[in-house]
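Researcher: Checking consistency across runs. Here is Nuclear receptor subfamily 0 group B member 2-like again:
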Amino acid sequence: MAFSSNPSLLLMGRCSCQGQSEEKCSTSILYQLLNRGCQCGAAQERALLSPRAASNAASEVLLKTVEFVKKLPSFVALPPQDCAKLLQAGWAPLFLLGLAQEKLDFHPASPKKSILLGILTEKQQQQGDSAGQYRQKLGKAKEFLNQCWSLDISTKEYVYLKGIVLFSPVVPGLLCPHHIHYLQQEAKMTLQEHMSSLHPGAPSRLSQLLLTLDALRTISARGIAELFFQPIIGNSDMGVLLLELLYPS
């Protein structure tokens, strides 16, 4: 079974770069762009006062997201073409789920968590009259984060929600859409079984969790790339760069 009530089982698969040197994995252009600077807590709290460093903090979540995907046995067992298409199609909602799981907010009273506020400030300075567009995108992201936090989603639930998002059989050009559909359904069933044992008095919780995923459809990947990563990668194609993390040369 690809999904288990123990989320650690999802992390037992070895990605294609495991067993190789860390230096080889870190040669990815995107890895080098996203993994700059000191990562200690004290430095991070000061750095987040800078909008560019705020994007770096969001980048840490993206790197964790890709590593999570690469350690899913059911994912790495798919044809490489399907792996690439699934990651390119699902990276943005997976990233937002990671952002929610890390509880990274943009409350101005908390510099350590002011990621979105810093990015919005920079966009307002750079774009002037178009800042309203960025505010609208941030509003959708904030709304999604609030939905997740209001439900107090557990680590296991985040794992299964990510599986539902990742294994999307409607992504165009898949070689194994039927198997991927099975994996998605298995993630939903395992999530339901988990909640039945953990929240027997809340039968509507599954519907509430799945509704949070519906909110992700209104947030475009392009918008997420512009909001969080454009200060780092410029106008580079995020989908192409992500493949370098998935399959480092």
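Researcher: Does this match what you'd expect to see?
Model: One thing to look at in this run: The chain has a mean pLDDT of 74.
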